Structure prediction request, 117 residues.
Amino acid sequence: MLDPSTNNELPVIPAKCYFSIGEVSELCGVKPHVLRYWEQEFTEINPVKRRGNRRYYQRHDVLIIRKIRSLLYEQGYTISGAKAHLSSNNAKSDSSITKQLIHQMIGELEDILELLR
Prediction:
């Protein structure tokens, strides 16, 4: 999903279900106000909102935000170009995100298995 060089610069996503806007900001290297703006521009970003309109992002939201960051900041896309790229590659993105999540889960399960032995 991201270029390998870019992926090394960003921190590893912890094994959590929900992330606050501050955590996502640190994980993706983007300020919170930019995340709120992208949320309005990109329908793919859909955090859960709880009391007081607090945003809680899921793992797939973080992966999509990283993809958007890569498109805008490293590959030079405009907002409208990034939207078009995401919509045209939506099926491909979904499968690559799913594959990445499955590989990460397998690694975590193998770590748990080693701890149990």
